[in-house]
Design a protein that fits this description.
- The complex is a heterodimer of chains A (296) and B (284).
- With 296 residues, chain A is mainly α.
- Chain A has a single domain, classed as MetI-like (MetI-like fold).
- Chain A has 13 helices and 2 strands, in the order H-E-E-H-H-H-H-H-H-H-H-H-H-H-H.
- Chain A has a two-stranded antiparallel sheet.
- The two termini of chain A are 27 Å apart.
- By secondary structure, chain B is an all-alpha fold.
- Chain B folds into 2 domains: 53 residues, no CATH class; 166 residues, MetI-like (MetI-like fold).
- Helices cover 75% and strands 0% of the residues of chain B.
- Chain B has 15 helices and no strands.
- The chains are: A mainly alpha (296), B mainly alpha (284).
- Chains A and B meet through helix 1, helix 3, helix 4, helix 5 and helix 6 of A and helix 1, helix 4, helix 6, helix 7 and helix 9 of B.
Chain lengths: 296, 284
């Protein structure tokens, strides 16, 4: 594989330098910065003072931060389990190539190429209390008692933001579908001869084969749950009464009030939780993944 | 996959069929109804929006679109977004394909570790790095410039792009280069005349992802710029609410205009985008 002659030490260095430089400046340095400054009492210009884990303790004792981290976990489960279940369900249906499946595959992914910002603005209009399509629809079908100021009431705001995100399954559906379609058809033919119905085929053939890709997708979706920012920022900005806030929103607000110490403790918490999620998922489902891969 | 189904009709299969179409249609409605509602509403008067929410407009208000362009400064936002997305995509593709070439074709000490370190960058929740990115941008004197976004977007995409390009270049047979080496090709010529041209498909796939990321990015556009001059489309949308005040339907027109380029790109490139996603998935 390796072409020995014609290679060149200077060339290697030249070709790697730009990537290494940018990577160091935008990944290595910021990560170090976040972890170091999370232990400092510092506003960016004052003389930094080492205060250990005080910033973290402050954060975790702060009521708004507690709400935010709880909401992050709601996002994590809603995306990691809710969205992945829906995506896997649709992928399993499309893998059987019903009429128009190619069109449906392309259609379901469409919202994923539109920016989150535009999608959020659209939903802000749909949920609007005065002219929003949702309330107007409820009134037309005679359910005017069900109308809400969807994004303005504590009871409905978080579900409203969650639902518009969870049901956009396109990204994970495509990934899971590709994996489903690589299962050999002969497996299903054998099961049909044995009299297995559709549900049994999906349960005992498709699902076990999908375990590796489902674990990967769940990990990714959960990571997105922790990183969540845009839709909440634009739809509710964390309100009402911080009921929809997430860590990203808090981080942004701390930064705007030049509270570097707490902001970076929040950033460090995000990074650490991200690693924990990956490790937990991998070790919980790791055996299942290996078994699934062995079967394939 | 069973293509011939339904030879025997048992109750479970009938339930499955009903459920199948219910699910498929429900998701189709969820995907398209809001977009179509937005599109049709964008041609209405504000009174019609309130009074006749699900009807077609009495008179199609093309004036809304004229207002949209006038009020929102869309052309400027659009130019900024095009500049940021194309330059950051080009920069990212050039540097990551050079690095991927070295990782895929050369051998040196610490190579494996270096590659894994870069690829692990995919796992970093970039949103947690807001504070250092803001500080860094100030320090580099790039705050409130398009270059702040260009460097940030290129850098953020290094891990994913290196991953895709490295995977792609690994599949190019080495014999082609060996022939070039026998003809006396240097390291640089091997890259420029052999491997890079053969990686075109990989560049298009990875480039599409970087471009879409840069085009749609919001958080760092919000954090690293402040003036109208360096505002991108996505950040501009955020200000529509204050710019249009109560002229909702003109605001809808502006939102529709920002969505159109993404849909056009998707119409032309959807095969590539879906294949790119799917192949990444199969490789794990």
């Amino acid at each position: 594989m390796i072409v020995q002659s014609g290679s060149n030490r200077l060339g290697i260095i030249l070709f790697l330098t730009p990537v290494i430089l940018l990577f160091a400046v935008y990944f290595v340095y910021p990560l170090g910065f976040v972890f170091v400054t999370s232990t400092l009492d510092w506003n960016g210009v004052s003389t930094p003072e080492f205060i250990g884990l005080r910033n973290f303790i402050d954060n975790f004792q702060n009521h708004t931060f507690q709400k935010s981290i709880r909401n992050n976990f709601i996002w994590l489960f809603a995306l990691g389990f809710g969205q992945i279940t829906l995506a896997a369900g649709v992928a399993m249906i499309l893998a059987r190539r019903p009429r128009g499946w190619r069109f449906l595959r392309t259609a379901y992914f469409l919202p994923n190429v539109i920016s989150q910002v535009a999608i959020a603005m659209m939903w802000k209009a749909l949920y609007n209390a005065e002219y929003g399509a949702l309330n107007q629809f409820l009134e037309i079908i005679g359910l005017s008692g069900w109308t809400h100021n969807w994004l303005g009431e504590i009871g409905t705001a978080l579900p409203a933001v969650l639902i518009q995100q969870v049901f956009y399954i396109g990204y994970f559906m495509i990934i899971i579908l590709a994996s489903t379609m690589s299962i050999p058809e002969s497996f299903y033919e054998a099961a049909q001869i044995d009299g297995a119905n559709v549900f049994q085929q999906e349960r005992y053939i498709t699902l076990p084969m999908l375990v590796p890709i489902l674990v990967t997708s769940t990990t990714l979706a959960m990571a997105y749950g922790l990183r969540h920012f845009e839709a909440t920022f634009l739809l509710t900005d964390g309100g009402p009464a911080n009921s929809t806030s997430v860590m990203g929103i808090q981080l942004y607000k701390m930064l705007k009030s030049i509270d570097y110490g707490h902001a970076n403790a929040t950033g460090a918490t995000l990074v650490i939780l991200g690693i924990i999620v990956i490790v937990v998922i991998r070790s919980t489902f790791g055996r299942a993944v290996n078994a699934g891969e062995a079967e394939q | 996959m069973p293509m011939v189904m339904g030879t025997q009709r048992n109750p479970a299969d009938i339930v499955a069929k009903t459920l199948k179409w219910f699910v498929l249609i429900a998701f189709l409605v969820f995907t398209f109804f809001p977009l179509i509602w937005l599109l049709i509403s964008s041609f209405k008067t504000n009174l019609e929006l309130q009074m006749r929410p699900f009807n077609f407009p009495e008179v199609w208000q093309f004036q809304n679109y004229v207002n949209a362009v006038k009020l929102s400064g869309l052309p400027g936002l659009f130019v900024n977004s095009v500049l940021v997305s194309t330059i950051s995509t080009a920069l990212c593709m050039i540097i990551t394909s050079m690095a991927a070439f070295v990782f895929a074709r050369e051998k040196f000490r610490g190579q494996e570790m270096m590659l894994n370190l870069i690829l692990a960058g995919v796992l970093v929740p970039i949103i947690g790095l807001m504070a250092p990115y803001l500080r860094l941008t100030y320090r580099l004197g790039l705050y409130d410039t398009l270059w702040a976004l260009i460097f940030t977007y290129s850098a953020i995409n290094i891990p994913i792009s290196t991953f895709l390009m490295h995977g792609f270049m690994k599949t190019i047979p080495a014999e082609l280069e060996e022939a070039a080496v026998i003809d006396g090709a240097s390291f640089y010529q091997r890259f420029w005349y052999v491997v890079f041209p053969l990686s075109r498909l990989g560049v298009v796939t990875a480039g599409t992802f970087v471009f879409l990321f840069s085009w749609n990015e919001f958080i760092y556009a919000l954090l690293l710029t402040s003036s109208m001059e360096s505002r991108t489309l996505q950040l501009g949308i955020r200000f529509f609410t204050s710019q249009f005040f109560t002229d909702y339907t003109s605001m809808f027109a502006a939102i529709v205009l920002t969505i159109i380029p993404s849909i056009l790109v998707y119409v032309f490139l959807h095969e590539k985008i879906i294949k790119g996603l799917a192949s990444g998935a199969v490789k794990g």
